[in-house]
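Supplementary Note 3. Input sequence used for the single-chain structure prediction.
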Amino acid sequence: MASLIPGYEYDIFISYRQKDNKHDGWVTEFVDNLKGELESTFKEDISIYFDENPHDGLLETHDVDASLKDKLKCLIFIPIISRTYCDPKSFAWEHEFKTFIELASKDQFGLKIRLLGGNIASRVLPVQIHDLNAEDRKVVEGELGGYLRAIEFIYKESGVNRPITPKDSEERNANKTNYRNQINKVANAIDEIISGLKAEPTITAKEKTPSAKEPVNEGKKEERKEQQVKPAKLNKRKLISGVAILAIIIIVVFAYPKIFKRDTLEKLRSSGEKISVAVMPFQNLTNDTLWNVWQDGIQVNLITSLTNSEELKVRQTESINNLIQVKGLTNYASITPSVASKISQKLEASLFIRGNITKEGTIIRINAQLINSKTEEVFKSFQIDGTTEKIMPTIDTLSCRIKDYLIISKLKKDLSLDFQQFASTNSPEAYRYFICGNNAYSKNDMSTAAKFFLHAIAIDSNFYFAALRLASAYWNLGLIDEGKKWCIKVYKKRDQMPMQIKLWTNSIYSLFFETPHETIKCLRQLQEIDDQSPLIYYSIGRAYIEDLYQYEKAIPEFEKALEIYNKWDSKPMWVFNYTWLGTAYHKAGLYKKEKELYKKAEQDFPDNLYLINRQAILSLNEGDTIAANKFIEKYKSILAENPTSEADINASIGLMYFEASYFDKSEQYLRQALSYEPNNPDRLNSLAWLLVDKDRNVHEGLELVDKALKLIPDSWQILDTKGWGLYKQGKYQEALKVIQRADSLKPIYSHGIFLHLEAAKKAVAGQK
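The predicted structure, written as C-alpha cells, is reproduced below.
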C-alpha cells in the first residue's frame, strides 16, 4: 500500500533493534496497537513498514541498503529509542536512522516541517522505551540536531527502567503514564505531521511574492484531502522584482515562529473591558393585564441569559429594580429613555436595553432597543414574533440575538479597521474564528489562517467575507485549484450579498479566471462606494505592481493606503503595505523616499525579515555594502535561530543579490543552494533563470532546465524558463511552442508569460 502523498513508499517506517523485540515482542505489540489507533484516527488507510521478521534483511550482519532505499522514502520515521538502539555501530542506527535523516533533509519537504497550528516538528518521531544515560542521549541528540523530544513508553519504579506494557498500572508507575494514552499521543502526533505535510506548499522562489490577493472559500473541516496533490504554484515574476521577498516568505512562514505568534480564541475572549449592560423592565402594550407578569419576566430572562456570557458585565435585577423603586416609578410606562439612561449611568452600565410587548390575535411581538447610556443613541433594534403559547422560546430567541450582537460588537475591537465593515455574521463563534484567521493572515501565516476561516464558515455558511479571505489564503499558499473551487462556490451566491461584498467577490473571481485589468476595474467600483478603505487602495497597488509590473501606477495607491492609516492613527495591517511601496519606489529610482519609508516601517514592524530584505537590497543599490552586509547578517542571524536549511538561506540571499543586480554574488549563492539539493527542481530553475535571463550562460541554463523538467515535466514555470532560454538562443519557433505550452498549463494569469509570448510571436513574425 502506497503513502497518502504521491512519491512516497510508506507513510511510516518503524525502526528498532531486534534485541528490544526478541524476548517479549514489545515492538510487535506496540505496532499492532498503533495500527488500531490509527484506524480510528484517519479516514484513510495508513501504510506502515515494520519488519517483524528477523531474517528479512534486517539482521545486524546483513547489508540491505538497496532493499531499504525505497522503504525509507516515507513521511514519518519512528525509531524505538532504547539503550541498545543508541549504538552508532548497529545496523538500525547507521542504515535506517541516519539514512532517513539524510534522505528527508533533501526531499521536497525537508526534515522539519511546519504544522497546521504553526509549530515546527521533525519527521523523526522518537518513541522512547528506556531512560537514557547522558552519553546515549548526547549521541541521539547529535544526530537529531537538537533536543530529544520523544513520546515515552517507560515504566519507572525504584530500581526499574523498562518499557511500559498495557497491563502496567499508572498509579505504580513513577512516570504516571498510561500505555493506552501514549499510543493515542503517537497517533495524534502522526496526524499532526501528515496534516502539515499535506498542507505544505512547494513554492519556488521565482513563483511567489508576498501578496494580499483576495480570493474565496466556504469551508468544512474534512476538506483537506485536496492537499494530498502537489499544489499549483503562484504567479511567476519573470522580472524577479520581489523574488527575493518570495524566498523569505518560503523561509520565514515555515521557519520563524517567533515572528508569527498566534492569537488564540482564549485570548480574544479575555481581552479588553467587558461591555456593561442594564436591562429595564419591558412595557406591556397589549391592553391585557395578564401580560403584566412578562414585563419583569422578559427582563429577568434577558439578564439571566446575558450573564452567562464572558464578554458581558450585566447589572442584576435587584440593583436595577431598587433604583426604579427609589424613583417611585410604579408604572413602567414612566421609564422613558431619559430615566433609563440615568439609572444605567448610576449602575455604571455603558448600554441599556428597553422594550415592549404587543399582541395581535395569537401573535406576540417583543420589541427591544439597545441604547447608549450617555447619548441615548439607539445602537440596534430587535423585533421577535412568537405565539402566546410559546412565549419562552420567543424570549430565548431575543436573548440570543441581543447577546450575539453585543459579543460581536466587542470582538470588532480586536479586528483590523480594514475589515470591520466587510465582516458580517450573527455568530460570535464564527466571528472569533474569523478574527484569529485574519490575525494569522496579516502575519502571512496562511495555513493557520485557512484553518480558522474554515472553522468560521463551518459555523456560518453565509459568512461570505470569511470565505473570501479563505480563498485568498489558498491563493497565497499556492493551492490555486482549491482556491478556484471555493471562488466558484461563493461567486454563484453573489446576488445574495450586499453590494460591497458582491464587488469583492467579483474582484476575486477575476484574480482566478480573468486578467488584472478586470480585477482593478472591480476594485475601482468598490472605491466609488468607499474611498477611505486602505484595503482597496492596497489591493489596487498590488495588482499594478505584482500582476502588471506598472510600478509608477502602484505608488499613489500604496501611498493613499498609508495616508488613511495615518489618519486613523493606526499602523497598517501588515508589513507589505511598506515593502510593496518600497519596491515600487525602488523600481522608480526613488531611493531617498524608499529609505525614509523604511524608517517608519521599522517603528511599526521592528526586526521584520521582509523589511530587512528590502533594506539590504536598497543598501546594495546605493553602493553602501557596509550597511547591506549588516542587514544580511542580521537576516541570517534571525534565520539561524530556527530550523532553516542551508539551501533555503543561500537561495534567499542569492535572490536578494539578484534583485540588487549583483549577479556574480547571486550566482554564487544560488549554486551553493543547488549543491545542498542537487535534485531539487526549484533550485535548478532558480539558477537556470539567472543564467538565462541575464545572458550569463544560456546553454548551461537550458541544461539545468531539462534536468528539472525530468523531475516535473508539466511545470509551467520551468517550461517558461526553457522557452525564454530558447528565445535567447534565437530559436524562436521552438521557443514559441514551449511558451505556449507553459501558457496552457498555468493555473492563473501570468504577466511574465504574456510578455514572453508577445516577444516570441513578434520574433517569429519577423522571420517570415
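The longest strand covers residues 351-360. The chain is about 55% helix and 10% strand.
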